[in-house]
Design brief:
Layout (H helix, E strand, L loop, with lengths): L3 H12 L16 E4 L2 E5 L12 H14 L7 H5 L2 H14 L3 E5 L2 H12 L4 E5 L4 H9 L3 E5 L4 H10 L6 E6 L11 H8 L5 E5 L13 H4 L7 E6 L9 E5 L1 H10 L1 H4 L6 H16 L2 H19 L11 E7 L1 H13 L2 E2 L2 E2 L9 E6 L6 H18 L7
Parallel strand pairs: 2-11, 4-5, 4-6, 6-7, 7-8
Antiparallel strand pairs: 1-2, 3-9, 8-9, 10-13, 12-13
This protein binds pyridoxal-5'-phosphate.
């Protein structure tokens, strides 16, 4: 009944030390989580503001379910668009400084829909380290795809001239790169793309609710938000689920008419929408969370530098320690796990071959003691592993 190739494929994955599995938490996600009967300090989540298990979001989700139902019952284009969707879209447009916003069920779908709908022809220029959902959006779009070296605006400019005759040009980039924690050079990308009529799309999954007073990469870098189309997620800093595209009204209209990942899927459920609205309230009313997040990111980077690790200056909560091979990365991760810290090993195809890494993420909910404990554990593991090559 099970074809032989299923086991064969799994064995091939395992032989490359690339096997992944699902590990259920025994409670909500937070800075401390229960797994396999133990409490672990969690340095692997994207719950940047510590809101995923906030009781106010849970309350708002319940209230939205009572008022609007547990499900939307249809796609956005049929009868699935509810008043609460419009309320959240207005709030998100305001947050991003955009004319409009449009909710999608997930960020993955938002990126698929954006590129498929906006690029039926022409060329998409895509950063080589873009998130898998942008990569898959490129596959779904009918435009040509040209990949530029990570953050390399000279390479981008070369590719733009090579494709100068394209009937339309789109530049797609993560705002904060999910596995590297660095920022897209937005001002330079715009300077290269705009003279050629290029439209710049920024995936702000890791910057919404994080950078620029929570408004995202463009705000953080002082770029007029009207110059780009923003994608953002509700499932990371905003502690809920879902995503949105923010930008000019005609772009929204085109997406409503063409984006297959919006048209052919059920609208986001009211509880998730209600929780996201509550999260925007918390973001506005509790700016200390952004302060704590930034402070924790800075403290982690400084602590790692003091231990001799090379880390970037980027002001984001994502700090990678690139270790190279899968086996080594698994060993480091296991060493930290045994000491009570969950730092997930990130392996290909999520990152390029040979760049497997520990991806450390801090949240506003980590304490100074959590960070000190992590650094201590990392120092011990590094000593065991003889990690001279990671020091400058
Ligand atoms: C998480 C993520 C997405 C996908 O968002 P979901 O809402 O989780 O589907 C898209 N882009 C980037 C950069 C991400 O990190």
């Amino acid at each position: 009944m099970i074809p032989a190739w299923v086991e064969r494929d799994l064995e091939a994955v395992a032989a490359a030390d690339a096997l992944r599995s699902l590990r259920p938490l025994e409670g909500p996600t937070a800075a401390r989580v229960r797994v396999e009967g133990r409490e672990l300090r969690n340095f692997s989540s994207n719950d940047y503001l510590g809101l995923a298990a906030d009781p106010r979001l849970a309350e708002a989700a319940g209230a939205a379910a009572r008022r609007w139902g547990s499900g939307a019952g249809a796609s956005r284009l049929i009868t699935g668009t509810l008043g609460i969707h419009g309320e959240l879209e207005e709030a998100l447009a305001a947050l991003k400084g955009a004319e409009t916003a449009l909710l999608f069920s997930t960020g993955y779908q938002a990126n698929l829909g954006l590129l498929q709908a906006l690029a039926p022809e022409g060329v998409i220029l895509s950063d080589e380290l873009n998130h898998a959902s942008l990569v898959d959006g490129c596959r779904l779009a009918r435009a040509q795809v040209a990949v530029y070296r990570h953050g390399d605006t000279n390479h981008l400019a070369d590719l733009l001239s090579q494709h100068a005759d394209a009937p339309r040009t789109i530049v797609a980039t993560d705002g904060v790169f999910s596995m590297d924690g660095d920022l897209a050079p937005l001002p330079a990308l715009l300077a290269a793309a705009e003279p050629r009529g290029g439209l710049v799309i920024v995936d702000d999954a890791h910057a919404t609710g994080v950078l620029g007073a929570g408004r995202g990469t463009a705000h953080h870098l002082g770029v007029d938000p009207g110059r780009v189309v923003h994608m953002g997620t509700l499932g990371k800093a905003l502690g809920s689920f879902g995503a949105f595209v923010a930008g000019p009204a005609p772009i929204r209209d085109l997406l409503v008419n063409r984006a297959r990942s919006l048209i052919y899927t059920t609208a986001p459920p009211p509880p998730a929408v209600g929780a996201a609205l509550a999260a925007l309230g918390v973001l506005r009313d509790e700016p200390w969370r952004l302060g704590a997040l930034e402070r924790n990111g800075r403290a982690l980077r400084e602590g790692l530098r003091a231990l001799g690790f090379r880390v970037s200056e980027a002001p984001t909560p994502i700090v990678p320690l690139v270790l190279g091979g899968n086996r080594r990365t698994l060993r480091w991760s296991r060493g930290l796990w045994e000491r009570g810290f969950w730092v997930h090993p990130i392996r290909p195809p999520t990152v390029p071959e040979g760049t497997s890494r520990l991806r450390l993420t801090v949240t506003a909910a980590h304490t100074a003691a959590d960070l000190a404990g992590l650094l201590q554990a990392l120092a011990e593991v590094a000593r065991e592993e003889d990690a001279d090559d990671l020091a400058r």
